[in-house]
C-alpha cells in the first residue's frame, strides 16, 4: 500500500448497532465524510495501527475498511477496534488513527463464530506486529500530540 502510514481523524458516529460490543469487539465507526476522503488506492480490508481518543493515550488498534461481506452492507464503513478497555463509550469524540500495516482482505464467513475468531486472530497478529521497532516509532508521532482541551472554569 503506497499510502501507509495513513493518518486520519474524525468524529465517532453510531454504526449499525449490530452489537459488536456484545461480541466483545466494539468498533468505533467513522462518518461517511472520512471514508469518502480515503485515497482511492487504499483497498478495502483489515489493517492495524495506533489510535487515540481526543488527547488520550495511544493504543494498538485494528481497523476494518469495506462492506463487511458477512453482513452485506451497501455502504462502505471504516471501523476501529482499540485494544484497550475504556471506562465508557466515546461517541461524538475525535478518534485519531495511524494505519501502519495491512493484514488481509475482507471475507465472508459461514457463521458468526468464524467471523469472531478471524477478528480475534487479527487482534493477536496486530499486537505482535506493532511491537516491531518500525511500527513502535509511529506511536510517538507528532500526529498524536493533540493539545489537551483548555480549562474553561479557570481564567
Ligand atoms: C479486525 C476486524 C476484522 C473484520 N473482518 C471482517 C470480515 O472479514 N468480514 C466481515 O464481513 N466483517 C468484518 N469485520 C466487521 C464486522 O463485521 C463489524 O465490526 C460488525 O459488523 C459490527 O458492525 P457495527 O459497528 O456497525 O455494529 C471486521 C471487523 C474488525 C474490527
Ligand atoms: N475498545 C474499544 N474500541 C472501540 N470502541 C469502543 C471500545 N470501547 C468502547 N467503545 C465504544 O463502543 C462503540 C462501538 O460499539 P459497537 O457495538 O461497534 O456499536 P456501533 O454499531 O454504534 O459502532 C464505540 O463508538 C465507542 O464509543
Ligand atoms: Mg461499530
Automatic annotation (TrEMBL):
Source species, domain of life: Eukaryota
Catalysed reaction equations from the record: riboflavin + ATP = FMN + ADP + H(+)
Biological process, per Gene Ontology: apoptotic process; FMN biosynthetic process; riboflavin biosynthetic process
Record's GO cellular component terms: mitochondrion
Q: Return one GO MF term.
A: ATP binding
Entry keyword Acetylation: no
Q: Which UniProt keywords apply?
A: ATP-binding, Flavoprotein, FMN, Kinase, Metal-binding, Nucleotide-binding, Transferase, Zinc
Pathway membership, UniProt: Cofactor biosynthesis; FMN biosynthesis; FMN from riboflavin (ATP route): step 1/1
Pfam family example for this protein? Answer: Flavokinase
Domain named Riboflavin kinase: residues: 1-131
List required co-factors. Zn(2+)
Task: Please tell me whether the keyword Transferase is annotated for this protein.
Answer: yes
What InterPro entries does this protein map onto?
Riboflavin_kinase (IPR023468), Riboflavin_kinase_bac/euk (IPR015865), Riboflavin_kinase_dom_sf (IPR023465)
> What EC number(s) does this enzyme carry?
2.7.1.26
* PANTHER family xrefs: RIBOFLAVIN KINASE, RIBOFLAVIN KINASE/FMN ADENYLYLTRANSFERASE
Physiological role? Catalyzes the phosphorylation of riboflavin (vitamin B2) to form flavin-mononucleotide (FMN), hence rate-limiting enzyme in the synthesis of FAD. Essential for TNF-induced reactive oxygen species (ROS) production. Through its interaction with both TNFRSF1A and CYBA, physically and functionally couples TNFRSF1A to NADPH oxidase. TNF-activation of RFK may enhance the incorporation of FAD in NADPH oxidase, a critical step for the assembly and activation of NADPH oxidase.
Protein name (database record)? Riboflavin kinase
> Organism, per UniProt?
Carlito syrichta (Philippine tarsier)
Amino acid at each position: 500500500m503506497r499510502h501507509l502510514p495513513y493518518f486520519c481523524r474524525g468524529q465517532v458516529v453510531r454504526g449499525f448497532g449490530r452489537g459488536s460490543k456484545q461480541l466483545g469487539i466494539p468498533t468505533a465507526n467513522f462518518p461517511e465524510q472520512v471514508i469518502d476522503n480515503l485515497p482511492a488506492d487504499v483497498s478495502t480490508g483489515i489493517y492495524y495501527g495506533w489510535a487515540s481518543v481526543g488527547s488520550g493515550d495511544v493504543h494498538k488498534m485494528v481497523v476494518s475498511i469495506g462492506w463487511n461481506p458477512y453482513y452485506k452492507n451497501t455502504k462502505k464503513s471504516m471501523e476501529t477496534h482499540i485494544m484497550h478497555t475504556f471506562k465508557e463509550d466515546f461517541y461524538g469524540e475525535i478518534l485519531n488513527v495511524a494505519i501502519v500495516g495491512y493484514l488481509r482482505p475482507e471475507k465472508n464467513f459461514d457463521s458468526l463464530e468464524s467471523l469472531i475468531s478471524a477478528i480475534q486472530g487479527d487482534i493477536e497478529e496486530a499486537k505482535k506486529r506493532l511491537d516491531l521497532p518500525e511500527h513502535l516509532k509511529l506511536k510517538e508521532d507528532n500526529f498524536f500530540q493533540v493539545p489537551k482541551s483548555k480549562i474553561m472554569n479557570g481564567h
